[in-house]
Amino acid sequence: MSKKISISIIALLTFFMVTGQNGSKLPPGFPDRSPKMDVLPGFKTPPKGYGEVSFYWWLGDTLTQDRMLWQLDQLKDKGITGLQINYCHTDKGGATYGLTYPSQPALFSAKWWELFQWFLKEAKKRDMSVSLSDYTLGAAGQGWFVDEMLNENPNLHGTKLEAKQFDVQANQVFRTVVPNNILIAKAFQNQNGTLNSSYAIDLLPMIKAGELNWKSPEGAWKIMVVYKNKVKTSSIR
After folding, report:
1. Counting C-beta atoms within 10 Å of the first and last residue's C-beta, which end of the chain has fewer, N or C?
2. Per-residue pLDDT tens over the stretch 121-149
3. Where does a domain end: 127, 152, 177?
């Protein structure tokens, strides 16, 4: 099941990346990043593809094409330009939330994927986009594809980026203990509250045995230290 989900996600991402890079016309609702674009008319009269994105709960009664077509027809002329498929969770069983309620057809089953693919086409006919919320599905310990990945490779883990900042005055000897796994340590000249990114000093060579030791030159300085922390993950086995 997890391989099919991964392939589908990769295919969607590849499509969006290629569509956005080859200069072709963007689908409705995708932002135009042209540097000379005048955004004011769009704010006054939003173009096609900009509107409400509603949570669309796929649980409860059995999902049928007839019932979903009727609902799509009710929504198409109501300013709804996107539908986010959502699943409720119970109050017990999961690591982050309760486990996801079951649905008919069963989530990520062959019948579910057939229904999902059909639903994408029908929504597109009505100028609506579709997405899937994974807040009860995409975290470790919720019993879905992330748990399958962790069971196959328990060493998989997330990484959290964190940062520390320090203000340093001119000709100051600055010392501080810094965390492990530092990615960047730089000093930026602070000119009346504005950091001069074109004049930055790399402080990584000034870190020895977990301590930053640096004497600042003339001017006011802001030190930025960015480091990573391993995030422990656990699955439902």
Report:
1. C
2. 999 999 898 999 888 888 888 888 888 88
3. 152
> What is the SS3 assignment for 56?
strand
Half-sphere exposure of 84 (CA within 13 A, CB side): 10
Sheet holding 221-231, edge to edge: 158-168, 221-231, 182-191, 194-202
Q: Do the Cβ atoms of 207 and 175 come closer than 8 Å?
A: no
Tell me, yes or no, whether 179 and 216 share the same domain. Answer: yes
Does residue 33 lie in a domain region? Answer: yes
Rounded Cα gap, residues 232 and 155, in angstroms: 9
| Axis-axis angle for helices 145-152, 2-21 (nearest 10) | 110
Residue 141 and residue 95: Cα distance in Å, rounded? 5
Residue 94 · residue 136 · CB < 8 Å: yes
> What are the phi and psi torsion angles at 124 (to 5°)?
-65, -35
pTM, full prediction: 0.60
Task: Please say whether the beta carbons of 95 and 144 come within 8 A.
Answer: no
Residue ranges making up the domain that contains 163 = 158-231
| Residue 147 and residue 94 share a domain | yes
152, 176, 200: which is the final residue of a domain? 152
Rounded distance, CA 108 to CA 102, Å? 11
In a domain, 221, yes or no: yes
Distance of CA 183 to the CA centre of its chain: 21
Number of Cβ within a 10 Å radius of residue 15: 11
The pLDDT tens digits of the residues spanning 104-114 come to 999 889 999 99
